[in-house]
Amino acid sequence: MKEQPLFKRVAILGIGLIGSSLARVIRSRQLAGEIVGFDASPSVEARARELELCDRFGKTAADAVSGADLVMLCVPVGANAELAEAMAGGLTAGAIVSDVGSVKRAVIRDVGPFLPEAVHFVPGHPIAGTEHSGPDAGFADLFENRYAILTPPPGSDEEAIAKLRALWEACGSHVEIMEASHHDKVLAVTSHLPHLIAYTIVGTAFDLEASERQEVIRYSAGGFRDFTRIAGSDPVMWRDVFLNNREAVLEMLQRFSEDLMALQRAIRWGEGQTLEDLFRRTREIRRGVIEMRQAGTFDAREPGKVPPPIQEAEDVQEAAAEKDDA
Length: 326
Ligand code: NAP
Prior knowledge:
The chain is α/β, with parallel strands linked by helices and 326 residues long. 50% of the residues lie in helices and 11% in strands. The chain has 2 domains: 7-178, NAD(P)-binding Rossmann-like Domain (Rossmann fold, 3-Layer(aba) Sandwich), CATH 3.40.50; 182-325, Orthogonal Bundle (6-phosphogluconate dehydrogenase C-terminal fold), CATH 1.10.3660. It has helices at residues 17-28, 42-50, 61-65, 80-88, 105-111, 158-170, 180-206, 210-218, 224-231, 235-244, 246-268, 272-291, 310-321; strands spanning 7-13, 32-38, 56-57, 70-73, 96-99, 120-121, 124-126, 147-150, 174-177.
């Protein structure tokens, strides 16, 4: 007898990088009987149709979620409230509503109030991505050997959590359950702050005199290139991340600024030992991260390998796979 898929009908709202990757992996691993798509952008929907990412598309968000036993919100964090309001009337009792947003407290705040009592809300965040956007950028093994963090609010339905865990595991991810505020703090330092630093450095370089700017680009292999890759990430997505994880980012930024000041002072006063001590410490941290993988790099797509602890996952994956996560 043929095994039943995990879900009868999955609705994916937002068919960009993450939504289209989900559609691809759900399709290729037969995790749902039917995939229904919806995207606010007609050109994205048209492209998703060409790529045959979904079985069909909803005319509206409410139409797309109708009859779905899993609804995945895959839009920029700032679009969730409007989308939740628009789809709420179409939700079926017993459905699981989840998301992939890079910030979790804001999603609970924005989506929760629109959901009827009869649906189960289990927010989530795959720690996987690239600096590219749109349906062409997605691929089926994006989530392979990456973490997926679930942040169910207290009192969430255990069965719903287990089903969502099963979905992410079937996508190849390692699932962790975390409190939303803890998630936001951890990601503020592992992902959001590094992106802010990259945006700043690249912006500063761009503001240099034209001749100096040319040289920055020419000699970018000296470290700058990696920052440009991160700073090439989606502007709308990242605007929403910073606006919606304001407190945690500002807290980490404060600590970072203090540490930067200390370094500035050490350079000004020629305190070489202070600099060397820090650089040795950070090199040890880097070595520890590599040793955890027993080799130089961690290939997120190598089956059977367990990724490093969540706090370090993104940096390591970035270095190894030339990708960045949110
Ligand atoms: P993306 O490639 O830009 O895709 C988002 C799609 O959602 C776009 O097609 C967008 O259309 C559409 N959209 C926007 N507002 C909508 C609405 N109200 N209703 C329906 N569709 C709407 O973005 P992504 O990289 O997949 O990111 C999606 C989510 O995943 C974000 O919350 C992000 O924080 C999270 N995430 C991203 C990464 C990453 O590395 N990129 C990693 C992990 C998690 P328009 O283009 O017309 O606006």
